[in-house]
Amino acid sequence: MMAGSPVFLGIIVLLSAFLAPSVGGRAMPKLADRKLCADEECSYPISMAVALQDYVAPDCRFLTIHRGQVVYVFSKLKGRGRLFWGGSVQGDYYGDLAARLGYFPSSVVREDQTLKPGKIDVKTDVSVLGGWQGSGGRTLRL
User: Fold this and answer.
1) Predicted structure pTM score
2) Residues 6+ apart with CB under 8 A from 116
3) How does DSSP classify residue 93?
4) Phi and psi torsions of 8, nearest 5°
5) Which of the chain's ends, N or C, has fewer CB atoms near its CB within 10 Å?
6) 77-133, pLDDT tens digit by residue?
């Protein structure tokens, strides 16, 4: 009786939203094994950049950015993922919306200001994005 109820099905759908990112029920591959950060927790921004063009995120690990938007860069992937950086953008008005976090191609931004050199080599973990809470309550690591 309970297994077919709308409430039970709703709970199952909500719980599935909190699982690790996946495509077709399979875990998404890590973009890289190592990254460069300003500190060991990747919690301090390396630089501020400006988006040179729009970029639409292909999945939940990535960050949609719009031309002219300021992007805070928190990590720079190494090895096979070296073309991607991890960062955040704010909503249209500062403080109006929570920051959005994710990866984006380094080629779609121009670094304008270095805040703290990204010289700390950090191992990436299984999570997506750095100790922040992202959408759906997932802990994200950049």
Assistant:
1) 0.69
2) 38, 39, 44, 45, 46
3) S
4) -60, -45
5) N
6) 999 889 999 999 976 555 556 778 999 999 999 999 999 999 999 998 754 444 443
Which pLDDT score, from 0 to 100, does residue 92 have?
A: 58
pLDDT at 80: 87
In 3D space, the residue among 14, 8, 10, 28 whose CA is nearest the CA of residue 137 turns out to be 14
Q: Cβ distance 35 to 125 under 8 Å?
A: no
- The residues, any chain, with a CB within 8 Å of residue 23's CB and separated by 6 or more, are 59
Going along the chain, which residue ranges are E strands? 22-23, 26-27, 34-37, 47-51, 70-77, 84-89, 100-105, 109-114, 120-123, 132-133, 139-140
